[in-house]
Input
Amino acid sequence: MPQAPTITVTSTRITVTVMRTTTTTIMIMMIIIITTTATATGITPMLMTTNSAGPPARAMTDAEAAALYRLMTWLSPAFPVGGFSYSSGIEWAVEAGDINDAASLKDWLAAVLSDGSGFCDGVFLAQAHRAVAADDDRALREVAELAAAFVPSRERQLETTTQGRAFIEIARAAWDCDGLAHAIAQSDGAIVYPIAVGIVSAAHAIPLEPALHAFLHALVSNWISAASRLIPLGQTDSQRVLAALELTVAETAKRAIAAKLDDLGSATFRADLASLRHETQYTRLFRS
Output
């Protein structure tokens, strides 16, 4: 005779085992995946569907896809602006013992990013982007001139103007667009790197917020790349430092977007001294 089924209940499934005695013993097991809710009298099973459709995901527009593609290209380490040649004073900081491991590197970069050149460059990029978007040639000239004068040392001046010039030249050669030449012409002197990125991204109608986030990410990535060759730092630790600075990058971008030129200022004196002392450092791998 067939035996009564055995039912085993857990919080997420019921296993029903039916055993029937014949010449050959046959075991049939049926497993029903369910969710259960406790009631006063026991457990009430509720079938759970797995193919329910949620709200449709919004597809990227052509303009958004183009903006993402260009930002990923322009601010990639492979974009030939020569960023690998510069350490922004980190080389001297390593020699002086200020930076000797991943933790000290993270602290140094967080300070420079939020209270030093990172924040200032973010403000300059935002102001240049807005000036180009508004066709305000006078404002663009003023912010470009101020950004060039704001660099604290000769080597940092070389670093940011060389990268700015390379960025502009490559953008015009491979990514030219209407209005770009006019915007570039408004800067009488050298165009520093954040101004160059602000001009090109605005001329291509790329929104300010993603452009600024991508710029700061590229800035931090280049600093970590330099440090990884100096400490030395392994690839995993390098990524841990980059991950640890994610919130700092986001907060710095938010502050830079909201800031005015009157809010510019730096409190990272040790980093500024590092860029000055690197000029007379005896053995060097980097140009700054």
